[in-house]
């Protein structure tokens, strides 16, 4: 618990966690953002 409190007090750690969260959300919602298969031939 002390480790999490120390991480949340550090501004650099907050930015890193935010960037990691954005990448995770992009990975989860990637099929919705790109609905077309990139391997199909026109």
UniProtKB/TrEMBL annotation:
Q: Where is the Oligopeptide transport permease C-like N-terminal domain?
A: 3-41
TM segment ranges: 12-33
GO CC terms, sorted: plasma membrane
Establish whether keyword Nucleus is in the entry. no
- Superkingdom per UniProt: Bacteria
Which keywords does this Swiss-Prot/TrEMBL entry list?
Answer: Membrane, Transmembrane, Transmembrane helix
Pfam families per record = OppC_N
> What is the protein name given in its UniProt record?
Peptide ABC transporter permease
Q: Which organism is it from?
A: Staphylococcus pseudintermedius
